[in-house]
Design goal:
about 140 residues; Aminopeptidase; about 35% helix
Length: about 140
């Protein structure tokens, strides 16, 4: 098992993983658009992606977007995408990808990491809580438009 910060050399593997991730969230497959989207993120460096390999096979990724807390005057990371292939599940890849994210947040002096997941995605919620994330239910309301 190896995890590293993705580069353009990982584009083919990331494209496949990103397309599978979108299919998991009930979107139509669109490999071309997935490739363009990920390539643009990597070229513009407006997200950080870590990719997990089992031998030579890419089995998962996590994508982070930067944000900031004005009140604390520090960076925040939005853990926007996390995906592990069916063949990679149950082997600790999700756990390792999140721990890599936490280490990266610490290295960059971030205030913390925010994420959201579907209410029905119980396995992901259990993983996040096991690692130390907690649901925000008391202090804030989140709105979307």
């Amino acid at each position: 098992m190896s995890i590293r910060k993705a580069t353009l050399q990982d584009l083919d593997s990331l494209t496949e993983l990103f397309d599978l991730y979108r299919i998991f969230y009930r979107q139509d497959s669109n490999v071309g658009a997935a490739r363009n989207f990920i390539e643009e993120r990597l070229r513009k460096e407006d997200s950080v992606i870590f990719i997990a390999y089992e031998g030579d096979s890419a089995v998962g990724f996590v994508q982070l977007y930067p944000s900031f807390s004005s009140v604390s005057m520090k960076r925040l990371w939005i853990l926007n995408d996390l995906y592990v292939t069916f063949s990679g599940r149950g082997k600790g890849f999700g756990d390792r990808l999140i721990k890599e994210t936490i280490a990266y947040a610490e290295q960059t002096g971030a205030k913390g990491i925010l994420l959201e997941t579907e209410k029905e995605n119980i396995p992901a919620q259990k993983l996040y809580e096991k690692i130390g994330f907690h649901k925000e239910t008391n202090h804030f309301y989140f709105f979307s438009l």
